[in-house]
Each structure stands twice: as structure tokens, then as C-alpha cells.
Amino acid sequence: MEEAAKEFDWEELEWGERIASGAYGTVFLCRYCGKDVAVKVISAGEEDSCAVETAELSFLREVSTWVQLDHPNVAKLIEAKEDVKPPLKELKKSGCCCAVVREYLKGGTLASYVRHHKKLSFKHKIKLALDVARALSYLHSKNIVHRDVKLQNLMLDDKGRVKIIDFGGSKIETDEMSVKVGTKGYIAPEVLDSTSYDHSSVRCFQLRHLSLGALLSEAC
User: Which Gene Ontology molecular function entries are recorded, alphabetically (predicted)?
Assistant: First the structure.
């Protein structure tokens, strides 16, 4: 988060174009204090109370997890706020939204990168794999399960370093988990069949390895 001495001023945020959309929100490229930032807007409209509650829970889960993290392979969280009203036509009917501001990673997603660079050297592949492994190892040290590790949630900065984003489905490993969260193709069998797992279970450790193996096999 931003240092307390320099409070984030939402009035200074310059909203820009939409650059991505996902299950938990829409991402916009914005400007703040002369720098590019990525802003994810989480909104479910005002009529569907169930969807609104789900969106709010996703926002709270993401922010409460992300604010604890500080690692070279984790995108930096800058600010977050509920009840934001973006001055954007595509969100006019959304009412108040939740917004998460993070550093802008100009290298794009790892999915896009490997699609446009089909002949990566073995050395380069190893570098990318180690970046991902370091991110997951760090989350493991914090007792955090991301639960949606995929190429679209891994991005590259301007130096080619991989950083993990999107903690809307994450969970602290304190309670038993069994809810199906994640993306088909990356989900471990334990999650697909709703088998419970917790931080003391070897299954929880295996979840990361299965997700890591799935995405590396796709990337390499």
C-alpha cells in the first residue's frame, strides 16, 4: 500500500481505456501522479443482491490478502477502495464499485508473451519458471493459497520479470477448504471433486505443484 504520509488521492486518478476483463472485474489503464497504473473495477450492478455480495467478498478477500505481500514476483498493490464511481460510460449502470489499484505491468500477461514468442530459449524458459516458482514459494511461506494460478494471472514488467496478480480467489490457509475455485485446466483433482484440504494437508502443497506444472507445460 502507499505510505501513510502520502495518502492516495482518488481525485487525481485519470481513468483510461479498458485493457482486460475477467471473472472478478474489469481492468483499466489509468494515470496517477504522472505514472501508469492498472485499476481493477469490481462491480455486479445494483439489482442482483447475490452478485453484489459475491463481488464485495471477492474485493475484501483480495485486498486483505494482497496488502500483506511484498515480493519482487508479486505485483505491487497501491490502493483499494469501496464505493468508487468511475466516470466511464461502460460502468454508468453499475452504481458504486470497488476498485483495486496496482502497478501497471507493461509486458502484458505471460499467456500473451508465450503466444507471441513461440521459440523461447531453454535458458529463458528456466528464468520464467523460476520467477513463477519464487512467487508461489513466497505465498506458501505466508500460508496463502492463490487458487487461480494461470498464465493470464502472471504478468511481466518492463525488465521481463514475472509477477503474479489477482488475489480475488485467494485464501489464507487457516480453515478447511473445499470450494471449487480456479480455472479449468489448472485446478487440482482435490478441488474438482470438492475434497477438503487445509494448510496441514499435503494436498494443499500439491495444489501449487499441479497448477505450476499445468501452466509451465502450457508456457514451454
Answer: ATP binding; protein serine/threonine kinase activity
Active-site entry in 9, 36, 131, 148:
148
**What's the pLDDT tens digit per position in 13-49?**
999 999 998 766 889 999 999 999 999 998 766 556 6
> In CATH, what number is assigned to the domain containing residue 78?
3.30.200.20
Q: Helix 202-219 and helix 122-141: axis angle, to 10°?
A: 160
Residue 152, domain member (yes or no): yes
Question: Does residue 158 carry a catalytic annotation?
Answer: no
116: CATH: 1.10.510.10
pLDDT tens digits for 157-210? 999 999 999 998 887 776 555 444 545 544 555 554 555 545 444 344 444 554
Sign of the four-CA dihedral 31, 35, 38, 40: negative
Assess whether 138 and 208 both reside in one domain.
yes
* Domain of residue 98, residue span: 10-103
- Supply 10's cell numbers: 482518488
- Segment (H or E) for 80: strand 77-84
